[in-house]
Amino acid sequence: MGYVCDFCGEQRSMVYCRSDAASLCLSCDRNVHSANALSKRHSRTLLCERCNSQPAGVRCAEERISLCQNCDWAGHGTSTSASTHRRQTINSYSGCPSASELSSIWSFVLDFPSRGESTCEQELGLMSIAENSATNSWGPTENTIGQSASGAVEVNDRREIAKSGVWHGSSSIHESSSVPNNLDQTTRSANTSLPKLCCPGTKCPAPYEDADLYEDFNMDEMDLSLENYEELFGVTLNNSEELLENGGIDSLFGTRDMSGADSNCQGAVAAEGSSVGLVNTVQPASSNAASADSTMSNKTEPILCFTEKQGHSSLSFSGLNVESSAADYQDCGASSMLLMGEPPWCPPCPESPFSSANRSDAVMRYKEKKKTRMFEKKVRYASRKARADVRRRVKGRFVKAGDAYDYDPLSQTRSF
DNA sequence: AGTTTAGTGTGGACCACAACTCGTT
DNA sequence: GAAACGAGTTGTGGTCCACACTAAA
């Protein structure tokens, strides 16, 4: 069970989609989840390599295996030797990431000991980033890469970063310890001409000037920074709480749609920043009413927004300076890739009130909170949805089989 | 400034029935 | 304890409608 793709039944499954409760190979994952705006929002993660039926939550660096919670507990919770294994959090993504992008999320994905030879991987390698940047709906990729000279980030650079597997800006793998930061050169060069990120609530000296600070940079710390908005930005916690209540980081970063003219990031100032990794990761996004709501309802409140205009990137907070418009987002597709991991948004610095313990506590709290909250309608039973999708109706209501209908989803015809 | 009207947005109810849950045998 | 069975419950999407809110007259 779970060894082969639930969709094609041929390839070995690699990722797990909770929404569909399905294990898929990479190509089917891509096919299935590029079908429509809703499917693009499905959150997927790697499949547990032990039980092959559950979504993996961690990766054991020692065993080089991705494990679900149960298998992780079984393997590491009991054995004293194994319990010391270094483990990385594996988080989910949505949208239609390309091969490069996937490999940047899961830097280890290409050297799975047991799966490296599958067709999926071959296909993975064949999927070109050009194809995706031009055609897929994974956010405004064409806008976020290939910057001007000042931006100094080109697609090639990005690919190199991806290859290096230490693109922590987007990787959801949290390995904060001591991965050599190949990003240094790129970030340094980029940072010399790009605005610096600054966290008003903290006293980070020359933030992000030191490329080491990028080391731990990914989305969950972004979450964290919002969770601790007050400390970080000196605004009332209510605002950030409400922001989170209303969809929080998901809406801000386009993991949900934002439709219509109201979806523009209502302004942004305060802190501007950019990072090579982040440029490709934090994508403004797309068009979801819920998200629009959240944005709307908080439009006078601090809003964190990433904007990209003519090669200039800026990551912004608050709600004043409009650097982006709805048009910027409308092409983002339903879902930019959502990367959840440990977010090094505001990296720890000596003066920061954030001790690492507090940080991890805050991350835990936020993750717990996020887990228990339903930000959007989730289809629990795909089979029921499939049925409902094809059922005939009268004025939107289901009708008995054989009865007259005025709407047939399959044929769009009427029986009377 | 206060009242009325028109327009817009939102959320809940409704429908049939396969899938699911749970208790009983 | 496991399996089979039956009864009750749940969840699915498009449409309608009541209600709340806003802007204009």
UniProtKB/TrEMBL annotation:
Chief subcellular location: nucleus
Residue ranges of every copy of the B box-type domain listed in the record: 1-47, 43-90
GO cellular component, one term: nucleus
GO terms, molecular function: zinc ion binding
Subcellular location: Nucleus
CCT domain segment(s): 359-401
GO biological process, any: regulation of DNA-templated transcription
Family to which the UniProt record says this protein belongs: Belongs to the CONSTANS family.
Protein name per the record: Zinc finger protein CONSTANS-LIKE 9-like
Organism: Populus tomentosa
